[in-house]
Amino acid sequence: MKSKFRNLEKAIHQIKLQQMGAQVEVIKGIMHFVRVPIEDITIKYVYHINNKGDYFLQRRSPYPINFGTYESQEDLINIIQRDIAQMKNAKKSKKFDKFIEINKTLSQLAINFEDLYLDYNISGIQTQKFNEKIQELNDLISETKNNSKKIHLEEK
Amino acid sequence: MSSNSQLYLAVGIFILTYAIIVSEKINRMTIAFFGALLLVLFKIINLEFAFHSIDFDTISLLIGMMIIVNITKRTGLFQYIAIKSAKLAKGDPWRILIMLSIITAVSSALLDNVTTVLLIAPVTLVITEALQINPIPFMVVQILSANIGGTATLIGDPPNIMIGSETNLGFMDFLSNLLPVVIVIYLVTFFFIKRMYKSKLHVKDDLKLKIMDMNENLALTDIPLLIKSLCILFLTMLGFALHQFIGLETATVALAGASILLLISKLDPEEIVHEIEWITIFFFAFLFILVGGLEKVGVIDFIAKGVVEMTNGNILLTTILILWISAIASSFLDNIPFVATMIPIIKGVGALSTFNITPLWWALALGACLGGNGTLVGASANVVVAGILEKHNHKISFMEYMKIAFPLMILSIIIATIYLYVFYLR
Fold first, then answer.
1. What count of other Cβ atoms lies within 10 Å of the Cβ of residue B273?
2. Structural domain tally of chain A?
3. Helix (H) or strand (E) holding B61
4. At what angle do helices B3-23 and B299-311 cross, to 10 degrees?
5. Higher pLDDT residue, B415 or B294?
6. pLDDT at A51
7. Distance CA A88, CA A91 (A)
8. What's the DSSP call for residue B424?
9. Which range marks the domain in which residue A46 is found?
């Protein structure tokens, strides 16, 4: 019975989206929820294997990020493995909590900017200000990269 | 083990299995599987007998039709028809209700009831949401229409499939004997539906425009597949109509349609076969084994003798009894195990009597199919619709539904009684 209700919900969404003019392609697949505890935090991933053989991977926590689509499970596992190693290493740093906080703020910033852009008529001067601030941030990232020692996880 | 012990054990296993199926405490397939297994473990039947008890005609017909529907529904045909009809009704809710009811009744005569409801319900919910109107009247009417429409043909409802498979009655026999009374019952039911709902279904004109803005063509996702599916559907229906003349079973026709459509559709067979309702198919198979066990130990013959003695071999009394018992039982119980048990009993009555038992089959079909309308648990389609409504925050209670549907079901059985009396028993 559960699958009947699921199919029905699927059909309702499909009709509504089609009536908006969307083309809906239904591909069956399996969702995987992965949890990796690292000390007091849990890194969470979700990936989806579909009948086309594609793997769609996202990290949900500690902050969300889209990793994209991969064609082999080897690539998928490598990405997760590398991400966990990086996170484990980052966790050793005293600045880890700050790093997470900044990333969460950046994610929220992107949402706020989209809301602003879509819901308000913004002047060219304001848009230019945003560009300048973004450029400043990018410059700060480059400057920090240049002044910091690169971490080579493989060597550890 | 003595034959008496076998008899008591078989009856005990059957009653217990039946009770658990009715209670819905355990999945009906799981418990039917266990019950059938117990018959084999206690050596009441052996594995070979168990396999011989399975009615593969019924199973094959169900699988064949499921494959055809699974492929056809991917084209968006049913959504197209529903949206088109809502637009033809100019967004007027009462007219839409009539249109969707007719579509449900006709589709249900050609497809399984639950499948029909699952195909029409999503569009109905989208339409009622756009009209900002309560979907309950629409969905209740769809339950009634699906169960009434499904009564009309051999393939419309599982009880009819089982009856057709176990007798020499073909697709055209069902159509010519049941369709006339089904049309009368549908019209009478609709007369009362009109009195109940028409005055309540009004919406503002600007909401009607939302329906007129819908584009039915957007629902069609694969035109070449649609053409192939329509051709095969037509040929399959033609095959059903002619199966007695060309000497093929309805199951063969359905499997042929499914096989050809699968071949020409070029769809991934894994996906299509995966969508077959295997739980239902296995439930049927295990149920046939359970009833086979009862037949082997002589219980079915015993009941058949009892029926003949009780009615004194009077065909009028036997027919009316089967019609009403089937209707009342099917209102509250799953009609599939009920019909699976009744079929060998009616065959037994036939073997012990001198009269033509054909009216008994029509009584069983009418009672089991129409009885499903009586309560919210009377048929799978009802349970599905109730679940859909609840998920969409429009709960309909058991009593609320029964107040509307039970009197209509009784009315339909009165009409069926008159029909059977006038045309078969007088």
1. 14
2. 1
3. helix B56-72
4. 80
5. B415
6. 77
7. 5
8. I
9. 2-155
Out of B122, B274, B388, whose CB is closest to A15?
B122
Low-confidence ranges of chain A (pLDDT < 50): 155-156
Do A5 and B114 make contact, defined as CB atoms within 8 angstroms?
Answer: no
Residue pLDDT, tens place only, B199-224:
888 888 888 888 888 898 988 988 99
* B269 vs A: CB within 8 A: no
CA distance B407 to B148: 14
Show residues of chain A in contact with B215, CB under 8 Å. Answer: 19
Identify the burial level of B91 via C-beta atoms within 10 angstroms of its C-beta, where 0-12 means exposed, 13-18 middle and 19 or more buried: buried
Alpha helices, DSSP H, located in B155-277: 158-166, 171-197, 205-212, 223-246, 250-265, 269-274
Cα separation values, A48 from B37, B347, B371, Å: 38, 53, 45
Is the complex ipTM higher than 0.90?
no
- Dmax (CA) for chain A in angstroms is 60
Contact criterion met (CB < 8 Å) for A19 and B218: yes
Identify all chain B residues contacting A7, using CB atoms and an 8 Å cutoff: 118
- Taking the C-alpha atoms of residue B166 and residue B179, their distance in angstroms, rounded to an integer, is 20
Number of alpha helices (DSSP H) and beta strands (DSSP E) in chain A: 4, 4
Q: Please report residues of B whose CB lies closer than 8 A to that of A19.
A: 126, 214-215, 218
Measured distance CA(B196)–CA(B133) in Å, rounded: 16
Closest residue to B126, CB basis, from A7, A12, A51: A12
Q: Please check whether residue B236 is in contact with residue B150, taking contact to mean a CB–CB distance below 8 angstroms.
A: no
B214: chain A residues, CB-CB within 8 Å: 19
Q: Do A5 and B388 touch (CB under 8 A)?
A: yes
> Measured between beta carbons, which residues in chain A are less than 8 angstroms from residue B122?
8, 11-12, 14-15
B22 confidence band (pLDDT: 50, 70, 90): confident
